[in-house]
Each structure stands twice: as C-alpha cells, then as structure tokens.
Amino acid sequence: MSKENKTALVTGGSKGIGYGVSKTLLQMGYKVAVTSRSLDAAEKAAEKLSGHGEVIGLEADVRSFDSQKKAVDKLLDKWGQLDVLVANAGIGNFGSVEDLTVEEWKDTIDTNLTGVFFSIKASVDALKKSEGYIITISSLAGTNFFAGGAAYNASKFGVTGFTQAVMLDLRDKGVKVSTIMPGSVATYFNDHEPSEADAWKIQIEDIGELVGDLLKMNPRTLPSKIEVRPSKPPKK
After folding, report:
1. Is the pTM value of this prediction over 0.85?
2. Which domain holds residue 81?
3. Is residue 110 part of a domain?
4. d(Cα 57, Cα 35) in Å, to the nearest integer?
C-alpha cells in the first residue's frame, strides 16, 4: 500500500511534540488527524499544517474512552483505515506529595497514563487490520525520579511499563509498539513559552524525525524503548 494512503492519529497534536510529529508525518505522505481537548485548537493546528498534506483536526479528550473512540471512528469514516497512533497528549502537575492535590494527581494519571490506555484501546482493532504502529510519548521522567515529581513520575513510569507490555501483547498480531522517552524539549508544556533560551533543548522537529525513523525501520527490527536527551545541556 502506498504511503499516500496511510493515515495517522496524533493525540495532543495541536502544539508541541504532537504538532512536530504531525508535520513530519504529513511530509512523509501520511494523512493525519490531530486531536485536542479544544476543537478550535485542533482545527487551527490542522489549518497551519494543511500546506504539508491532508490533515483534519478533531476534538478528543484522552481522559474519556468514548471521546477517543469517536475520534478513531471519525478518522475511519473519512479515510477507511488507521496505520499509526501516536499517543502524545500529556500534562504536568509538579509539587511535593504534601502539596499535591487529589485533583492534580487524578488529572495527571487520567491524562498521561489512562489516556494512553484509552487511545490504544480505541485504536487497536483498526491497527491490527492495518498491521500498524503504536508510538507512545513517555519521558526520561519515566525512569528517573525527582523531588516534586510524584504525580508526573508515576504517570510516566506507568506509560513506559505499560507500553512495553503492550508491545509484547501485540507484536504477534503484526502491530509494532515503541515508546519514546524525551528529556528537555522546547515546547509549551506546563505553561512554558519557548524562546531562544531553549535552543539547547530537543526541538519538536527532532522528535518528529525520530518518529519518522521508526516508521522507516525494517519490519524485522523493533526499537521498543528509546531514550533521547539534549546532547549539550547547560552545566549546572
């Protein structure tokens, strides 16, 4: 099947890593659906990306299985198949366990971990039909704990382990599964505003390039867990 007929769903694709990955996929010839909790944000991102290929913006909240299923169904209704899922949507709530609220804990786990489960669960039947690829975006915080990271560490440690188990569940079904674990990335994450001061960080197009490299990999080979970090971080 030609790459021009292949499709991808990118959660949290309206900005940051998801936007960078979506742009790369479009440049590779994939048709791409970008999702966001905000339909306006998703559609604005799709409009900006439209010069690179066929793209649609969909409203979807990864905290809701029904919402994710509706997004997948809309993609299938439009294009007939799903070949790549990039489970990227995530948030960051940081602080000591003494200060972390129950709501912050729940929102972090529901978005970063349960949201990945819902995204995969909603997509798995279509991906088995296409013998597609699942890529989750975890973090180096999924293997390195730090003070103030109770909720975020828990969610990303969970994503890393969950993705590895899913890889074993699905590889005999023809579905490839990888997790990418970035360090510092120049994004809008946690209300950060990217600037020239972030030039040393991983850029969103770098993660997009990495996703592209995974999709180009010979089918006999599966890089299942990839750590990626800035090559020259500032000295502390």
Report:
1. yes
2. 3-228
3. yes
4. 6
